[in-house]
Amino acid sequence: MYFLKFGLIMLIIFSLISIVNFILRKLFKIEKVKNKFFSNNYINVLHRRVDKWNRYCIAIITILIWSLFIFNDLSYLIFIGLTVPLALDYGVKAFFELKYSDYPKRAIITLSEMLLMLTAAIIIVLQLERWFP
Question: Is the confidence at residue 108, as pLDDT, over 70?
């Protein structure tokens, strides 16, 4: 039953993100940029380097947070472990889209995705705490 609720929440989140992206594209007249599925689309070499170091730091921080969570019952660390990496990843992407991209308006869509994903992470963490007290 938990997986059904989780799947339903994920379906609602991704459909909401798609709807918001569509509305923002029409509202701000933002061109749709074709990206390959599961590919890293870097703006320039600096973006690749910063993103690589960002992912290394996120991996180390996530491992530390999960190890602290396993050995101690610190459930608020799950919230930090989900939100901080999301905010860092989307923040770096939005910055490079705004400063160095050919499509600077694309940063608006990236920031809206970040806010929706952070909201989703908060909802999932709250649901996990309610499902598994």
Answer: yes
